[in-house]
Amino acid sequence: MSQYSKNRKGTGLAPHAATNPATNVTDRNHPGGENPSRNGSSGAPRPAVSRAGHDIGLLGMIWAQDHKRILGANGGMLWRIPADFQFFKRTTLGWPVIMGRTSFEALGRPLPGRRNIILTRRPDALKPSLRTGGIEIAASVSAALELCAGTEQVWITGGGRVYQEVMDAGIADLLVVSQLDLVAPVPPGAKVTVAPVIDPQRWQLDESRSDATWRPVSGDGAWRVQYYVPR
């Protein structure tokens, strides 16, 4: 289950912009116009070649979580933060996204403007309505990365088990985490998906790119973006 697996329709963009250094694209939802801490002028540089190999430039993982690290429940989202949806779109647009089958089924369609690589060992298990020409199938994370050989950026977008697998393998170069200023209302008995623990022995917060304060409320709450790089 991906935390970005539902409606991506957001609010209008703010009139000012700051640059997202992970992707060198404009982040128009940042409050107060351009933020020098997010303009890419400092902080850990992107590796020339990813730890994931396959001549990939950068392998990133991106997710949104509440204060309890919850990503969602029962295959769906538990909040609506339109500005974060827009941030996710701008960050991943134009690059391959890799997600598990459950996340893709929750999404209900391929993400436009991106290569959609779906992890499953049982392609026949996909819902017939989702067996479209807009997706690629890979039996493993390694096979998915091989499909992306030579790509400048690749993004892991869910769900919880895929995040954990990549985290355990130690092949990600960047974590982009939207921290939501809320505790998700989990229905009684729901199957909850949580984000992986970010081990401070293996990852460090890149303060030069991370938000020091909360961004304005959007939908259900305020939010901020945290960038983590390997130690």
UniProtKB/TrEMBL annotation:
E.C. number: 1.5.1.3
Biological processes annotated in GO: dihydrofolate metabolic process; folic acid metabolic process; one-carbon metabolic process; tetrahydrofolate biosynthetic process
Gene3D superfamilies for the chain: Dihydrofolate Reductase, subunit A
Gene Ontology molecular function, alphabetical: dihydrofolate reductase activity; NADP binding
Residue ranges constituting the DHFR domain according to the UniProt record: 58-231
Keywords from the named record: NADP, One-carbon metabolism, Oxidoreductase
Region ranges (Disordered): 1-50
The organism's place on the tree of life at top rank: Bacteria
Pfam families: DHFR_1
One Gene Ontology cellular component: cytosol
PROSITE patterns noted in UniProt: DHFR_2 (PS51330)
Known pathway: Cofactor biosynthesis; tetrahydrofolate biosynthesis; 5,6,7,8-tetrahydrofolate from 7,8-dihydrofolate: step 1/1
Family statement drawn from the similarity comment of this UniProt entry: Belongs to the dihydrofolate reductase family.
Name this polypeptide is given: dihydrofolate reductase
Organism name: Mobiluncus mulieris
Name of the coding gene: dhfrIII
